[in-house]
Amino acid sequence: MLSVARQTLRARWASFVGVFVALALGACLLATTGLTIASTVSDGRQPVWYSQADVVVTGSQTVSITVDEGDGERSTSTQRTRRPQQLPADTAARLGALPGATVVVDRAVPVDVAGAPFDAHPWSSAGLHPLTLDGAGPRGDDEVVLTAPTDRRPGDRVEAWTPLGHRTWTVVGIVTGPPAVYLADPAAALLAGGRVDAIAVNGVAAGQVRDVVGPDAAVLTGDRRAGAEPDPDADLLAVAASLLGTTAGVAVFVSVFVVAGTFAFAVAQRRRELALLRAAGATPRQVRRLVLGEALIVGVVAGVAGCAAGTLVAPPFAAWLAGSGFAPAGFTARFILWPLLAAFGVSLLVALTGAAVAARRAGRVRPIEALREASVDRRVMTAGRWVFGILFLGGAAVLLALVPRLGGEAIALVLLDAQLAITGIALLAPVVAPPLSWLVGRLLVPGVAGALARDNARTAVRRTSSTVAPILVTVGIAAATFAATATLWDASERAAAARVTAATIALPAGAAGIADPGTGVPTAGSVVYVRTDDYAEEVDALYTGPGVETVLRLPVRSGAVADLAGTDTVVVGSALARASGWRTGGTADLWLDDATPVRLRVVAVLEPSLDLDQTVLLPWALRAAHLPRTGADAVYLTRTSSLDGARTVTAAEYFRSRDAEQRRLNHLALVAVLGMALVYTSIAIANTLVMSTGGRSRDLAVLRLGGGTPRQVLTMIGAEALLVGVTGVLLAGLVAAGMLAGLRAGLVHLVADPRTVVPWTPILLIAGACVTITFVASVVPAALVLRTPPGRLSSVRE
């Protein structure tokens, strides 16, 4: 059957162009994302800061949870935290007592020097990596060494903001090397509050160091020394990998959708051809093998072409990620073989999977029944489509009814509800789309051409539903995702701003934060790690100074926020408390962001809220005891005033600016994913309409022989295309409207007077693009067909 499949492909190559393009594009996307994801996985960072240290000692930076799975089996999951634990104060002295050991204590404190953020280190740590010095090292508390390039020179004075407030330093030297500023060791220790980030040891073996520090500290040698250095690119690479994984998943899903739809349409058009094969003695199994053989050949060729294109597209795509803020500056994609092999294998699997249902249908063709069948659509709706379509719509209706009752917990179900509704309507499209197209035509397209367009859209069930379905999926997902995201962002910001009772909020000018303000309530964002089943989940944390209840209107279910004090108390959000089993007066076991395990007394549990459900509030004194000394992220002021080195804003301005970058990245990610889906939609629509135009040659000839001009025929086809396109957009709009209604009903219990926010520009652009593609893909092939004289056109074989 492979030889027959090759002959079929040569004879009907135009029918498989859409499948080839869809598979090649899918393979290209998978290869591009695979190469880029593989490039985000470092081959092993080389140490830079500690390159001249034999051994580096840091505190533990992991949270491990071990679960007993029964039968003596135990599994352990490990989560890397944002920073390591603080080393004991006497660690350096104990290491220094080793014979022949040279010990250097390193600390890193964020400061702002001349408006630029740096980490301040002790001058002794400058010898841990290669550098050249122009000038002298710092000796006094007001002396500093800067890293080149800089426009400062020895003898210049620089203004700095530190966790201890404003400082004026004298530049005594300029060095080359990693970006940093260097202070005299006592000055750096004072800024760090005595905290030790790492200890470099030379002259002794790692085993001796490990014997001194014990199992609770990390002893790093070789390339592992890089683990003690900050990795600012790690979070960005994780974001890039997440975006790429989502894009790849959508690519696989939509490509299966396109391939399955294309093969189903091709089999429907070839029923008489397949019936002839059956009449000539071909068995159902051989017919199925024929269709799968076609898919195999197209899949192999498209996979090779797509992977080759992916190697060319990956580097500029990686550059776009870096330029958009999704990846570190200078990030690029490297040539790696295994992602290409994986992309080829997945594209081939997609081809066979997409063709499987069509092959099964082709094998059921009965020779006599198919040969006698007229060229009209019959039994497009199978029992499976009816059952699953109704089930999906029923599930969407149930979820929509539950949203108002479940409140905040149901917000995450809203997008799932939209996806269920879209899938259900797509399955029932042969029933829903034709009559709706006819109704739209009655309202929008009058005249003879409109009447013909309405009748064609209503009777050509398969063509209409095959065109409406990808429009519904693309526009529906776009409208639901954009609108839900914008509505949730707006509700979260408004909920956070509405609870602020402070007159103004002071924000720092740089990374050093606001030093002890002496007034107002300081706050700083962080994370903690909470055990969830068999792993540690990262949740938001907010450190707050005394009196937070006077500047924030916190909805308390039980307990008192005023009791948040000392270093052993916590206030928890309702969803987090329920999931972890925490109660007021009980204890909460968690890990701070430096991997320190703490047991805190729950002094209050909050009511359900959109912005604090998965958050813990921690006392300011706990931050001072465990985290590096840094200033506050914000200070809530009870009266209008100003703080040195800070600017004041309103609550609305604060929350809007705080989330602006995250919103920008989310928007770009949505545009990237939905833009890719739009490309696939274009392929599906164009392929369906181009294939169907070939099958309408005789219909067009009859119109021409009946006196219709080419312009009139094209007007009818264009009107039909617009009707079908608008129908898909209307169905998508109905789904999005239902989803937004459910979302608003859920937000009513969490936000006062929630607003529905719809970003019309991207939604209308995607909808307009779908309708335009439908129009062009209908009119252009028809115009080419109409160039053939009507007499010859009427004799064209099927």
Tell me what the structure shows.
InterPro entries: ABC3_permease_C, Macrolide_Exporter_MacB. This protein has 798 residues and is an alpha+beta fold. It folds into 4 domains: 1-45 and 231-373, no CATH class; 91-230, no CATH class; 387-499 and 651-798, no CATH class; 510-644, no CATH class. The chain is 52% helix and 17% strand. The chain has 23 helices and 23 strands. The strands form 4 sheets. Strands 14, 15, 16, 17, 18, 19, 20, 21, 22 and 23 form a 10-stranded mixed β-sheet that branches. It has a 6-stranded mixed β-barrel with strand order 5-6-11-8-10-9. A 4-stranded antiparallel β-sheet has the order 4-12-1-13. A hairpin with a 2-residue loop joins β5 and β6. α1 crosses α8 (284-324) and α15 (461-498) crosses α18. The longest helix is centred in the middle third of the chain and has 41 residues, at 284-324. It starts with a helix and ends with a helix.
Main attributes of the structure:
six-stranded mixed β-barrel, ten-stranded mixed sheet, 23 helices, alpha+beta, 23 strands, 4 domains, single chain
How many domain modules? 4
How can the largest sheet be summarized?
10 strands, mixed
Helix content: 40-55%
Number of strands: 23
Uncertain runs: 373-377
User: What is the overall shape?
Assistant: elongated
Structural class: alpha+beta
Which percent range describes the beta-strand content? 15-25%
Overall mean pLDDT stands at 83
Number of helices: 23
